[in-house]
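= Protein in question =
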Amino acid sequence: MDSMRKGLLYAIAAYTMWGLLPLYWRWFETIGAGEILSHRIVWSFVFVAGLIIVQRRGKEIRAILGNRATLLTLTASSLLITSNWLIFIWAVNNGHVIETSLGYYLTPLINVVLAIAFLGEKPTTGQWAAIAIAGSGVLLVAIDYGSFPWVSLSLSISFGLYGLVKKRMRVDATDGLLLETAVVVPLALLYFLYIGYSHEAHAWSLPTGTFLALLASGVATAVPLLFFARAASRLPLSMLGFIQYIGPTLTLGLSVFVFNETITPVLLISFTLIWSALIVYAWASVQSARSLRTA
């Protein structure tokens, strides 16, 4: 129970940070998504490498490098989270914040399916009811949107699979993040060379304050991912998925009240259903925990 409480706190912190990230990425809307992503990868690697050095975890890193199976798993998780970052940054800076919110509302449903299919988790009757209610809310959003929501589906599937990989990985969160970013750092550096050679690099001409904020993208990226990894190792994947509703709810609020995107009556009904599902799921989970404790 103590481990689950810590996992819950880590999950809440991670999803709150992610929910507010559109505010941060809008700061760099004059820069292309690929260039922002490259900076995000490089400075995340630098930040986490600093943590590794401070914590003197060189021995642990060498042990992971000697395990081929773990390296393959880290490569898969690296490619999944990098694709997720790219789609998210592009969507935020091109006026599709509501689609990102829908994507992360979909992710918990994807998580539940993955948990049942790959981890053998068995939701209770109350949890199934919550899934059905949430699913109907998401379906209403998709219908109201009026076209195939490729941004939403890409974000939900990539992050759902990333969560599954992290759940099955037995690697310290900091070590794992260092190696995940290390996998794609060469690609980021090659992209730097490409845009520099073609005179399409814009970050280096930013005002000093904005450029320093871009360098801080390493911290903005690494900290919630570290929290998420710690939460994933302590909580059931299905529960982790429902806590995730914190993030898209904050993002939805930003899209409407800060970025002035339109929310329709159907969207309001849909989000009411989704929050109702969250309450039902939380109640069912508490009842299940009490039954287990009694047994």
Remarks:
- The mean pLDDT is 85.
- Residues 2-294 form one domain.
- Residues 265-294 form the longest helix (30 residues).
